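USER:
Make up one protein:

ASSISTANT:
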Amino acid sequence: MRFHLSPASSTRKWLGFVTAVWVQSISGNNYTFSNYSDALKSLMALTQLELNNLSVAKDVGKAFGLLAGLASDRLPTPVILLIGSVEGLVGYGVQWLVVSRKIQPLSYWQMCIFLCMGGNSTTWMNTAILVTCIRNFRKNRGPVSGILKGYVGLSTAIFTDLCAALFASDPATFLLLLAVVPLVICLTAVLFLREVPPSSTAMDEKEESKFFNIFNIVAVVIAVYLLIFDVTGSHGRILSQAFAAVLLFLLACPLCIPLYCMLQDFNRSGSKPKTDIEGLITEPLLGQNSEPEMAALAAEAEEKVEPENELVVEVKPPRPSMGEDHTIIEAIRTFDFWILFTSFLCGVGTGLAVMNNMGQIGLALGYVDVSIFVSLTSIWGFFGRILSGSVSEYFIKKAGTPRPFWNAASQILMAVGYILMALALPGSLYVGSIVVGICYGVRLAVTVPIASELFGLQYYGLIYNILILNLPLGSFLFSGLLAGLLYDAQATWTAGGGKTCIGSHCYRKVFMVMSFACVIGFGLDILLAIRTKKVYAKIRSSKRSKKPAAPSSS
């Protein structure tokens, strides 16, 4: 008996999704700048404004994600993954050479180029993963987006905690991990991740939902495990190595799903009776016996189509309505696209400013080790991503609640978080890190399916990467300009030639301005939720109409 794994089998489909989760688990390196920014600052004798502009250069790499979006419709997924992983190897590899002092520090503009390459590498990986998986599981876009974006959020904590456990948080070793690990993982995904036909029956969709629940449970276990490691303080060498081994085991646990599917496929192939061969020859037999009828039907269809074709030539095709496939030109001509774009800027731009400056924010408030805040933002960002995907999907099915409503809720909560951080009360940085992480995660996870639901999947890769332009734009506005200029205005020169600021006043004005930006984003999200109410009502009705009243038997 021979078992054959077809390209469209559920085993290959879920094996591809598992490798996609692994890629996302290591593709959040853009959010780890705080872990090695202080080493770059001291090594290159930079001011805070210069350091912030380095972080902007990293985020500018995402602006070139448009290339990945264009390539997603022309190149296969494995090629896109390879481009991203090799680019990351070069970008972060050169930074490792500089920080580890293997080579002399490069000039400022050269470092900007390699930081830009490192930032751009993730756009290729994320585009390949998101476009392929959203198309493979198009009836469960919310959970897919939540899970994948959730693991991106966890990746910062995964890298940070593994480095702390095994290498004592050495910045040079951390950069080496950022360079090498994504290449190894992407080579694994190249073997298995492919675009396959989406589920076509209610039974398949139900099975998908069941498996996504398992992915969610495993992800939550990993997040709680990382959180426990962070809050329990310093650990001995043996305990840290045991932590790393268990973490790798947990990341491998989702492999149980494709293994289960493979056993099911194997049992089906082995238990088919020989009489089933009639099912295999039914279609050819019908085709041979019904050729005259098919010819007659084809001739009749041609007669009916001809006059319709004449009408199509004369009538100008109408603009697609919301929910239908849009070209990129059609999408950017809509008012809804720019509402989504601007509100996304208010959320992710301010969130990135906190993540990029977390090292200096912690030091200004008197914390020596800021890695705990980086990990908290990452882990709670995961909870925001994974819960918002599943919760927003549930409420669409239940009541047709527009997904932008959840973005609005996250924006107003994020504004509260910035006010708490501005007040600089005892423990406010812990609370603020958690709130910003959750809201930033919601923003990223919910915007991904919104774009596909409003503008379709045909050009989704390019539309997604245009929205992602908000990352470098937001980083420049809120981190490079706002945080950099206001911090340096409060800072004083040190003996080493750099500038530093100690005290709650250093970032107070920054947090207040970002809080106001979030209030603007809240208003835009409410407007978009109102404007897309009918779209989500249609999505709800289509989901409900696919539910069978009772299982059919034949």
